[in-house]
Every structure is written in structure tokens, then in C-alpha cells.
Specification:
Helices cover 35% and strands 15% of the residues. The longest helix has 19 residues. The strands form 2 sheets. The protein has a 9-stranded mixed β-sheet with strand order 3-2-4-7-1-8-11-10-9, sandwiched between helices. A two-stranded antiparallel sheet has the order 5-6. The radius of gyration is 20 Å and the shape is globular. The protein binds malonyl-coenzyme A.
Length: 458
């Protein structure tokens, strides 16, 4: 039986910050929720469900805490909204979006808010406390079994560093490819007003780049390799998810909700065309093999199959880039290195390799290196071409170039995908003719995968 179509009706994200006074994750989430409702031209009373995830900074019952702080359920006309809280770490942005879609399709809700945020910058959560919680999330100091030793602290960078070393050791990537990816992320991040590197007007209501002056990119691949503080043998600090405070929200509903809010002046709905989810172990098995990527490959395949589409139709890509190795692997799994329409479509133009990370990683690495060579000069100044057209990947900067509030980043990707598919990214940032986006969330160390295909104007 065909599933009911479900849409994104509104999307909004706060600025990302890492300095100034400590931020409160719940307050950030409330701000994002109100921004998304305003964007959708809807009232909080029209929501009948809220989907969120636990924060690193907060405690239990995250959804109830947020609903109460946002004043949901205060109307006498509606019951308290249904709350769902998913423990999926970095996969949460997409996993929660798919959960919201399932609530609408099952008839349990007609309009659902998906809200995620956290406050994990050093301004809000001192590094020692951050590492105690982040290390614990992936097994802690004692590891899980004698056969699976604990990762040394900082455990998350160490786990991803091992994946990068696996790819380098197998000759699948060159070290410079990883730095090239981070350099491109920094370039996009520097052009987005809401990210840590962006210079948007503080307090403006939604990221809008129409009046945003071009900022030179901060980092070339060469600078990253020469000056980046080593965090592991194959990772510098500039190749780590950049801790940040911030929140994102989207409003999801079916055809009824689209009709109920009317037409004129409302942003066009974005169809959630397909979704795929898959789980893996908490940390990849030792010794590492290409099988570590199987959940990612399965989630991508599920999303494409349901959307009845494939890489040739995708215009803008949102791989989860907590570390360059995950982004390049996801681009390979998504088939982003395949040429489209016979030309060098995004990004790069290499060997068609959709489906297998091991088969596509080398092409993804080469694509990143050649895009970085064209777009970023060695001194870090801007190259000639438009980054959004030449490298339509994480156009908001992702986790490396934009910022990473723990479990929320993939929802920032969903918000940016909506901005791109609505054609609202502004001069210098808009991917020309963007109609289809693919967004990935990755939790833990490849522990949880969620992928969504989004389509404009249906
Ligand atoms: C950090 N900095 C960056 C950067 N990363 N600048 C540019 N690009 C990047 N990618 C900057 C910071 O903004 C800060 O600038 C300075 O470098 C120092 O960063 P810090 O974090 O304050 O340093 P420190 O306290 O020494 O901690 C280093 C660290 C930590 C490596 C232990 O940064 C860390 O653990 N990072 C990884 C975070 C992480 O893994 N998150 C989860 C991703 S995995 P300034 O100007 O303020 O000094 C995931 C999946 C999941 O998302 O499920 O969780």
C-alpha cells in the first residue's frame, strides 16, 4: 500500500555559537521551535506531537522538559502533545524526521515538531565534562568486552581516526583528501551566516544570505595539515566536529496540515520522499574491515528505494561530516561521485560507484581534492568558481565548518536542505536548480544510520 505523503512545512535553526555566556539547550530548542512554527505560518496549538532526542548537557525526559518550556499543551482545546524521544546520537536529526513522518502516516498525529539542540561548546560545557560524557557514550574507559578494548580519550576522535587510518592504510585515500574535505567544509561554513565561522548579523531571525558579504575561507588543506593540532595519527583538530551551541527545528505534516495552513505566502512544502535506517555495533569490530560501512550502505539503499530515485537525481548532498572520513564514505555510499547526465555533476565526477563505500571512497577523495584545488587557493583565499555549484555538499558547513551541537547537526542539515530546495539560500550560496537533496545522520561511531531523500515542491 502506498504511504501517505508527508512534508516539511517549516524549518529554522538558531545561530551556532561557541563563546560568550553559557547557553541552555532547552532555551535554544524553544527558540528553534518558535522559529520553525513562524516559518510554517502555524501556531503551537496546531501541533499534536513533538519528536526530540536526549541532550548531552541535560537529563532524562528531554521531550517533556522541552514541551513544557515551550508552553505546548497549554491550550484547553487540545490534549498535551504526544512526546517521542529517540536515542540515536548524531543520527537523531534524520531518525526523528522519519519518526515524525511515521506518526503522521499512522494517523497518530497530523502536525509534528522535530526539535534538536544542545550546548556543548567549551563556553557551555567545560572540555573535561564534555569528554567524560562523550567518552562514556561510546563505551567509556573500560570498553565493552575483553575482545573490544576501550578507545583512548578523546574516544570519539580516536574511533574515527582509526577509520581514517584504515582507509589510508588500504590505499583507498590520500591523507590530503581528508584535509581537502575539511577545507571545503570550512569554505561553505564561512559563507553561511548561522555557523561558527559565518559572520551573520546576530539576532537576525533566520539564516539569510542575500545581504551576506563574501568571507574568505579560513583554511586550505595545506594549512590544515601544517598547522592543525594533532588529535590522532590521521586527524587534526580542524578535522574534528566543531563543538557548538545551537538548535534546529522542522514542522512536519501530511496533506491535511498543508491544506489547513492555506497557500498564500507560505513556504512550499518539501516532500520527505524516502527514508532508510540501519544499526551497527556501538563501535566498529576489530580488526576494521569494509563491513563496518554496511549499515550506512543499507540506510542509503533504503532511502533511495523508497523514494524511487538514485544518485543521478540528487542535486545537493548532506553527508554527516563529524570527521572527513565519514563524509567521504557517505558520499561514496550515496553515489555522489557518479557523473550525472554525462557531465561532471556534483561533486567532482568520478567512477559510478553507488552503494559500496570500499568501491567509491577513492573517487570521493579525489573529487574532494580536485574541488578544493579549484575552490580554495593555498593561502586560504577564495577561488574563482561558485562553491555551491562546484561542491554542493553540506552548503552550511556541516559539523566541521559550521558547528556540532552533539545530536542536533543532522537536523541543521535538514533545515539547510529545505532552504536549498526552496531556492532561498541567496546569492553565492544557492545550488542552482536544486530539487532533490539527500541527508544522512550518523550516531556514535557508525552505530546508527539514518538517511532521507527530500524533494522540492510536491
Ligand atoms: C575546533 N576548533 C575548530 C574546529 N574544531 N576550528 C575550526 N575547525 C574545526 N573543525 C576550534 C574551536 O572552535 C576552538 O576555538 C579551538 O579550536 C579549540 O577547540 P576545543 O574543542 O575548545 O579544544 P579542546 O577543549 O582542547 O578539545 C579538543 C577535543 C574536542 C579534540 C578533545 O574538540 C573534541 O572532542 N572534539 C570532537 C567533538 C566530537 O567528536 N563531537 C561528536 C562528533 S561524532 P576557540 O577560538 O574557541 O579557541 C558525532 C556522532 C555522535 O557527531 O553520535 O556523536
Amino acid at each position: 500500500m502506498p504511504r501517505l505523503p508527508v512534508f516539511i512545512l517549516g524549518a529554522w535553526a538558531t545561530h551556532l555559537t561557541s563563546s560568550g555566556p553559557p547557553r541552555n539547550a532547552v532555551f535554544l530548542c524553544v527558540a528553534a521551535l518558535h522559529g520553525a512554527l513562524k516559518d510554517a505560518r502555524m501556531r503551537a496549538t496546531s501541533l499534536d506531537a513533538l519528536v526530540t532526542a536526549p541532550t548531552l548537557a541535560g537529563g532524562a525526559l528531554a521531550g517533556h522538559r522541552l514541551a513544557q518550556a515551550a508552553g505546548l499543551g497549554l491550550s484547553e482545546r487540545r490534549p498535551f502533545p504526544l512526546i517521542r524521544s529517540l536515542d540515536a546520537c548524531g543520527a537523531a536529526g534524520v531518525a526523528c524526521l522519519l519518526e515524525a513522518r511515521a506518526l503522521v502516516q499512522s494517523g497518530a498525529a497530523s502536525a509534528v515538531a522535530v526539535v534538536l539542540g544542545d550546548a556543548v561548546s567549551s563556553a557551555s560545557l567545560p572540555t573535561a565534562a564534555f569528554l567524560e560524557r562523550a567518552d562514556a557514550a561510546v563505551g567509556g574507559a573500560h570498553g565493552l568486552t575483553p575482545a573490544q578494548p576501550a578507545l583512548p580519550s578523546p574516544a570519539i576522535p580516536a574511533g574515527y581516526d582509526a577509520l581514517a587510518a584504515w582507509a589510508l592504510g588500504g590505499g583507498l585515500l590520500a591523507r590530503a583528501d581528508l584535509a581537502a574535505y575539511a577545507s571545503l567544509a570550512a569554505l561553505h561554513g564561512s559563507r553561511h551566516p548561522g555557523g561558527l565561522a559565518g559572520k551573520g548579523k546576530q539576532g537576525e531571525e533566520r539564516p539569510s544570505t542575500s545581504d551576506y558579504p563574501h568571507q574568505p575561507p579560513a583554511l586550505s588543506a595545506d594549512t590544515i595539515l601544517r598547522t592543525g593540532r594533532p588529535v590522532g595519527p590521521a586527524t587534526t583538530l580542524f578535522e574534528c566536529a566543531r563543538r557548538a551551541d545551537g538548535a534546529a527545528a522542522v514542522i512536519v505534516g501530511g496533506a491535511d496540515a498543508v491544506r489547513a495552513r492555506g497557500g498564500g505566502g507560505r513556504p512550499p512544502p518539501i516532500l520527505i520522499a524516502g527514508g532508510g535506517r540501519a544499526s551497527g555495533p556501538l563501535t566498529p569490530a576489530h580488526p576494521l574491515t569494509a563491513a563496518a560501512w554496511a549499515p550506512l550502505e543499507a540506510a542509503v539503499a533504503g532511502a533511495y528505494a523508497e523514494a524511487r530515485t538514485g544518485p543521478a537525481d540528487v542535486d545537493v548532498w548532506f553527508p554527516y561530516d563529524c570527521y572527513p572520513i565519514t563524509a567521504l564514505a557517505a558520499l561514496a555510499a550515496m553515489g555522489a561521485v557518479a557523473p550525472r547526465g554525462g557531465g561532471a555533476r556534483a561533486p567532482g565526477g568520478g567512477v559510478p560507484s553507488f552503494g559500496s563505500v570500499a568501491a567509491g571512497l577513492a573517487a570521493a577523495g579525489r573529487a574532494a581534492s580536485s574541488a578544493a584545488a579549484a575552490l580554495v587557493d593555498p593561502g586560504g583565499g577564495p577561488g574563482a568558481s561558485s562553491p555551491a555549484a562546484a561542491w554542493p555538499v553540506n552548503t552550511h558547513g556541516g559539523l566541521l565548518g559550521g558547528g556540532a551541537p552533539w545530536a542536533a547537526p543532522a537536523l541543521f542539515s535538514v533545515v539547510e536542505a529545505a532552504v536549498q530546495l526552496r531556492g532561498e539560500a541567496g546569492v553565492g550560496r544557492q545550488v542552482p536548480g536544486a530539487r532533490v537533496a539527500v541527508v544522512q545522520g550518523n550516531g556514535g561511531i557508525l552505530s546508527e544510520q539514518a538517511v532521507a531523500v527530500l524533494r522540492a515542491g510536491e
